[in-house]
Design a protein that fits this description.
The chain is of the alpha+beta class. It has 10 helices and 14 strands.
């Protein structure tokens, strides 16, 4: 830290800082000597800041010797004489050169004194800061990479990425029909004609099973597979273990003497085996798909399920979901006893008769 070293710019360097304001200096080098910041070297501009950069900066650095270099930008490379100005002064990049093979004490000393140099020179004039241990870190290509990285948005957490995907998908809530596609409510993706035809066949009883998938590249919902007849034991094999899917299945079964045609909508998502975008697309499209099935295709959905793997789809599981067991012998709720020693109970007396006897 700067206040710990006590090192400040000497008088010569402070006077030179004033000279830097008139545009006659392209770069200068500062070193620490005799417990003070000294001007080591400087160069005037020759061309544009990009043309001057490597030819002036790289000869300034020395192996095993940390230093500071301040380099002045131009606003427009086509106008090398017009330099970038900010708050009434020029814009500079502060380069901290600290090679790995330099003495540890020197590296610590320069790191702790940088804040003092910025303060004495004028922190408002420093647009960028560049740190390097090898020349590739501080050459023109390294500087451009640094500026690109600094301008990039901050990395997002997984939750923030998911929320961004949800916002991108919230594009409307209407249903429209044209000659080729049926557009789903809530998303921009349409369902292709063969997928809609399969759902209509399902509604007529011609199919027992329909599977739909989202083609992210084509931005549409497509038919993945269909079956005229499918037993429950064969249902798990239809569930992919590396991709999400929508399944519409008519579960024909007997229960307590009655026969049921239960339509089950199954949303299968194999956890984090799928990318975030795919997870969010399927999650956001689930409600519009079920709305389409119930209101456009006119198929009533008995139960909506979400699973992570096909092995969950057993006959016992479907029965429990469609016909949940009720507990008919629930124990009565026992009224809790009141607190002990609540005080004396109120005493009531019978009304006194005419003779004075109770």
């Amino acid at each position: 830290m700067s206040h710990q070293t006590g090192i400040t710019a000497n008088k010569e360097l402070l006077n030179f800082f004033g000279r830097c304001r008139n545009g006659s200096v392209r770069l200068f080098k500062v070193v620490i000597e005799d417990e003070a910041l000294h001007l080591n070297d400087w160069k005037p501009p020759k061309g544009s800041w990009e043309d001057d950069y490597d030819s002036l900066v790289l000869p300034m650095v020395v192996d095993q010797q940390p230093c500071y270099i301040l380099y002045r930008y131009d606003t427009d490379s086509a106008k090398p004489k017009l330099d970038s100005q900010s708050n009434g002064g020029y814009e500079w990049v502060l380069i901290s050169w600290s090679p790995d093979d330099s003495p540890t004490r020197q590296k610590m000393l320069y790191a702790s004194t940088k804040a003092t140099l910025k303060r004495d020179f004028g922190a408002a004039q420093i647009k960028d800061e560049l740190f390097g241990t090898i020349k590739d870190d501080i050459n023109l290509n390294g500087l451009k990479k640094h500026r690109t990285s600094s301008a990039a948005p901050a990395p997002l957490t997984e939750r923030e990425e998911e929320m961004n995907e949800i916002k991108k998908l919230e594009v409307g809530v209407d249903i429209g029909v044209d000659s080729k596609h049926q557009t789903l409510a809530g998303v921009a993706f349409p369902i292709v004609s063969d997928g809609l035809a399969a759902l209509n066949k399902f509604a007529k009883g011609e199919l027992q099973y329909v599977q739909l998938r989202i083609d992210i590249g084509a931005e549409e919902i497509q038919l993945a597979s269909q079956a005229a007849s499918l037993q429950v034991v064969d249902l798990p094999a239809r569930v992919p273990d590396n991709a999400a899917r929508y399944h519409i299945y008519r579960y024909d079964h007997n229960y307590e003497g009655d026969f049921y045609h239960s339509v089950v909508f199954i949303y299968s998502m194999p956890g984090y085996a799928c990318p975030i975008k795919e997870r969010m697309l399927y999650s956001s499209s689930k409600n519009p798909i079920t709305y389409l099935i119930e209101n456009t295709v006119n198929v009533g959905i008995t139960k909506k399920l979400e699973i992570s793997e096909g092995a969950e789809l057993t006959e016992e599981f479907l029965l429990d979901e469609i016909h949940p067991k009720r507990n008919l012998h629930r124990p009565k709720f026992a009224k809790p006893k009141g607190p002990a020693n609540r005080g004396a109970k109120r005493l009531t007396k019978a009304p006194v008769g005419k003779g004075g006897e109770a």
